[in-house]
Amino acid sequence: MSLSGLGAVAIWHDLLPEARDEFYEWHNREHMPERVGIPGFHRGRRYAVIGSGPEYFNLYEAASFETLAGADYLNRLNAPTAWTQRIVPSFRHVARALCRIAFTHGVGSGGVMLTLRFAVPDVAHAHVSSEMCTRLLPPLAYRKGIAGVHLGIADRAASSVVTEEKRVRADVTIVPSWVVLIEGIGVPEVESAVGELLPALLAAGAHEIDRSNYRLEFTRLKTPWTAG
Q1: Per-residue pLDDT tens for 117-146?
Q2: DSSP 3-state of 101
Q3: What is the largest CA-CA distance in the chain?
Q4: Which of 80, 165, 180, 188 has the fewest CB atoms nearer than 10 Å to its CB?
Q5: Looking at the DSSP assignment, which residues form a beta bridge with residue 112?
Q6: Judging by DSSP bridges, how do beta strands 7-15 and 112-119 pair with one another?
Q7: Interatomic CA distance for residues 87 and 31, integer angstroms
Q8: Rounded distance, CA 141 to CA 193, Å?
């Protein structure tokens, strides 16, 4: 299916092993409900890595990019709870992008998500965006076993804003520039789809490429009784 809105927060991170048990309780019972409770936030999903890559991928879908840059979200980031302040210092190798959704299409939500992070030369931005949205990504959404294909382009200034929540982390946050998400029924299906996309991206000068596969662990909408 399409993403639920035209704004998204994409977060990758590792975690200190000793924090894992409490992380799950905090993320399921406080943090994700808190995030999707913000006006304009629609859905949160957490994924765990399959194979190599950052241990966790978190995706929050919002009505628009303006929701992500608005006061409600910023105020929440600047007032971390005591539980958040205890858990977040255990995060490592964080990458976070506040994205404008340039393309999103599909038939449903997949149990496996491939994340592709990359950068392109500044002079190629307009060309790559046009090619991705009109020629490269639409056919992928119709491939066998693919549930959805999405493109987010990060606002680097908004993604880099230092907040109280960010200050309690132990490391520097990476801000990816371009994010492609391919969700499907299994790893072979999403890997086949990205294999079709990568040659065109490389030909356009894509670099700093990082890709990983994830399995869905948890989904949260506005309330625990809301389907989805």
Answers
A1: 999 999 999 999 999 999 999 999 999 999
A2: strand
A3: 48
A4: 188
A5: 184, 215
A6: unpaired
A7: 10
A8: 9
